[in-house]
Fold:
Amino acid sequence: MAKKASEKKSSKLQWFFLIIVIPIIFAAVIGVVILSIFNVNVLDLGKNAASNIPVISSFVEDEEQQQTEDETNEDNADSVSEEDLTEKESEIATLEQEIEKKDSQIRELEEELETLQIENETESENEEDTTSGLEELAQVYENMDAGDAANILSEMDNDEILRHMEKMDSEIRAEILSEMETETASALMSALGQ
Structure:
């Protein structure tokens, strides 16, 4: 008899699960799927319904507080990010100004380099002209009588005489120096030896 009573109890419990609980769970799952298909936010509806149940409402409120705290933390992070962003933007602006200054310095230096190159080319051309002019004058002195050339050169300062004599042939230079005054000739000889 005890066996029959326990079998009756277990069969009533099985009947309760098979006839009531499982169909309710099945209907709930089907309902959630259908509502999701129609773009109904089932989670929010569930939270609203759970907040009306006395014991479960405290858990739902805790989740809402946690969500509110998370949003507050995100807002603080956004404000910190905005401060950082503003600081970085000012830093970028400062660096861009420095780049502009450096670019202008580079342009100025390139212009100065160009000017110096042009001056250098002009000086080279002038030196070539002077050198060719001195060679022509040296030829003129070489073709003159040594005494006449010595008289003309004696009227110049020693540096100028040296420039003219450097372009002359050594034999003609010796003849002209022999016609000059001794002091001038010795100063020129020592300068030519260096």
